[in-house]
Structure formats: C-alpha cells, structure tokens
Amino acid sequence: MPQETISEIEVLIRARYPIIYVLSWEEARVHNFIAKIAQKRNKKVFQWSYTTGIVPLGTMLQLRKNTSVSTQDPLAALNEVMEQVEPAIYVFNDFHPFLAKNNFAIIRRLKEIAQHLKDSYKSIIVVSPILSIPPELEKEITVVDFPLPNLQDMTFLLAKIISDVADNPNIHIELQGESKEHLLQAALGLTWNEAENVLAKIMVANNGRLREEDVNMVFSEKKQIIRKSGLLEYFETQDDLGRVGGLEELKEWLKKRRMAFSDKARQFGLPSPRGLLLLGVQGCGKSLCAKAVSSLWRMPLLRLDVGKMFGALVGSSEESIRRAIVTAESIAPCILWIDEIDKAFAGISGAASTDSGTSARVFGTFLTWMSEKQQPVFVIATANDVTHLPPELLRKGRFDEIFYIDLPGVAERTDIFKIHLLKRSRKPQQFDVQSLARACEGFSGAEIEEAIISSLYDAFYRQAELTTQDIRASLASTVPLSKTMAEHIGYLRNWVQGRARNASSVVPEESEGKRKMEISDFIDPPAKK
Length: 529
Fold this sequence. Notes:
Number of domains: 4
Number of helices: 23
Structural class: alpha/beta
Shape: elongated
CATH superfamily of the largest domain: P-loop containing nucleotide triphosphate hydrolases
Number of strands: 15
C-alpha cells in the first residue's frame, strides 16, 4: 500500500490544508484510503460528482438515484460545503473541467472557501487523473501524486486471487520464487483493476493455469495503455541476442544487468540501470540490439519518435514529451527506445533562431528527466553521426554506458551469414560461409542480409536452389557503405577512442595482424602514364 502517500494526505488534513489535489486514475482505491483516514480522525466523508451531487462516500449507485440533484451543479456543491459545520472530508471526483480559466465563478468560490476551511475542520480533496490548476488557485491547492500499486501490493493482489480460487480444483497456480516475482514485476505500472483483470484473463485463457510464461499477456495489457496514449509505439519483437552476430562485450554487459530490476537487486544495494547509448555505423545492428534487450529482459519495448513530438502549436512539443515520459513511467519497468537520437536533437545550439527555442526546451525536458527519473525506465538511444550529438547528452549520469558498434570482423560476419540463412530456412552447413565472410570485408550486417535476399530472388527466378555462388555474386555487385562513407567511418572510429566502449571483443580488421613495413629505403612514386 502507498503508506507514505496516505500518511502525507493525513498530515495535510490535520494541518488544515484546505484543498488537496490527488492525481490518480484509481478513484475507488483513493476513496478507500480516504475513508480510512476519515474514520481514524472521526470525520464524516462525502463524495461529489457531476452526475450524483454530494452523497456519503460509498453510497451504492442504485441508492443515489433518489438523492437530491440540487448539489449536482459544482457551484451549488461548493456552497453546500460552506454551509456545513460538522468536521468532514469532501471528495470531488473529476473536478478538473470546472477549473478551466473561464470558470470565473467557481474559481472565485474555491478561493473564498480555501480561506474559510482554514478555520474549520473540513477539507476538500479533488481526485482526478488530469492536473488542471488555474493560476488564481496555485497558492491554495496542494498536489499529491497517488502511486500505482507497488510490488508488495501486487503480491497481496495475487495472494487474494489465489485465495479466492483455492476451492476450485481446475485452477493451477504454477508460480514459485523468481518466476512469481517476474510475473508480478511485469504487472507493475498497471492499476489495481487492470492487474486484477489481466491475471483473471490469463487463468481463463489458459484453462485455469497461471505461469511465468504468461508474462506476454501482461505486456498485452500494457500495450493497450500505449495504444490509448497515441504518443509511443509498442514493439512486439521475437528477436533475441541469439539473432545478433558478434558484439560479445555488449551481450555480456546486458546479461549481467538482466536481474538488476528485481527486488533482490534493490536489497543488494543496486540501483536500476538507467540507459545505454549505441553509436556506430549504419546497418550494424544497433536497432536490432534494442529489440533483443526487450526479449532478454522480458520487458515491454516502447519506441519514441522524437520527430513527432514537435507539434505545430507553441508549447505543444514540450507537453508532448512530458506526456510520453509520464506514459512510459506508468507502465514501468519498461525499455524506452529512441532511434537515431542524433537526428532528433541535431542543431540544438542554433535552435533558438529557427524554432523559437522549442527544440532546446524539449531537449532540456528530456535531459532533466534522464538525470532525475525514479521509475525503472531503461533508455536505449541509437545514433549514427556522433557530430550531431549535443555534449550534454554524453556526460556521465545520462547513460550507464556508451557502446560503439563497428563493422563486423570475419568471425562476426560468419555468424551473421549463419543467422540469416537459418532465418530463411537454409542450413548454413550447406554453404561455404567462411569464404563468403572473407569475401565481404567492410560489409555491415544489413548489407549481408540484403545480399542473401537478393541472391534468393535470383535463385527463385531460375527456379533453382540457393547456392554459395549466388550469394558471392550478390556480394560482388554490392558497394558497401564502408567505401562510400569511408571518411565518416574513419572519423567515427577516431572519435570513440577513449570515449566509448567497443561492443565487440574482435580487433578491427584494419589492424588484424597486418604489419605495415617499408622494405626498401626509397619508394618510387607512381609512374606517370
């Protein structure tokens, strides 16, 4: 239970704070805790909504239809609060639409009531999922964030569900130890009702079974939250680290942090991992790694397109990035993937003259959140051009580590050939993958994949099976990016020296035992033709 929040609300009531604004989607859950506070303080408690007016808290919906409608009007309801003299707590549900800046009468009445309540034993609590406070009331209202259920709450909920179905012989709960914690960790970020619904849904769909493998159904519930927000994209991926060729250093780093989000890690003193920045050549697997982390850690993957954050109206971009952050935190633990962040925040230093500083403000909001975020949202950002990255993004504290993903070496290219041949139902042992790997020096993983796809088209056109020669021919007709952008790649390799960690343990091919020697004392210049 959110004991700290409940204690804070009780202290505010006892200190005679007149208006308390509780931000929460869980109206019924907040009501339950407020009722306990009222009982403890020996106060009556009433609730108001636009459809029922003021009624005792907990009044059944069927009994409310006979209630007087005289207090349905918000101004009349506030007048009723003023007239009552007994100690009481008044809960106003979804009152935020009436706090718009044009509702002068209600804003003025609330301001007068705030002064009146300080000399009484009455309090007003506004419960709403949307924060809306007019400037006139900023000094009169105290805002409290009501947290979503934590791991302890989810454990209690699961125990309650198990107890409710204990007498049913068709129910089989197959959760123990880490598997139980893993499922409950996946449910974090859901409201109490959402978690209860999805656990019941799992048991119904699986004929009464509840297993760790059903964690994907929990993610499907979170997918609904993302879909409703319209700001983030939920990625369902089947890719895992086994489909990533090479990059052993990066893989090892990720595996060591697999359990770092668990309660056991908190007890050990470990903070939740913050994020990862992947730099490197285009097509070398940066985006694939982001998807693979989702499968490895069994967390939902959210993709943020920062370009969509920049709305046409002034101020809408800042609000959009804040809404995206709040949405991501609401379903934490999760992975927030920002693809090509270098393009999103390029030219921040000169943004004031081109977009009135909107880009800089969005970037500042994002940086502040990365440094101060409390929720377990792991950020994976990818970038191709390091020269476009603002220096503020690269300082320690934003990301746990910066990895550089270079062009694959011979051994890594061999693995990549095997992975993509298997992916297309071909047996790697039927191909000379070693010679193919040596024949495509300077190729990225994406270019190797495209060469295989191109050779498949050729084989299909001939109505013949794919051969090593087909792939070799496709490789020969491809000009790799490492040649067309040789200068850029060279600059990138020089820049990362001492600034980033190599994702691969393989030494770049340019220095793979190739000693450069001058045999003669004098080298003739190239002969003129």
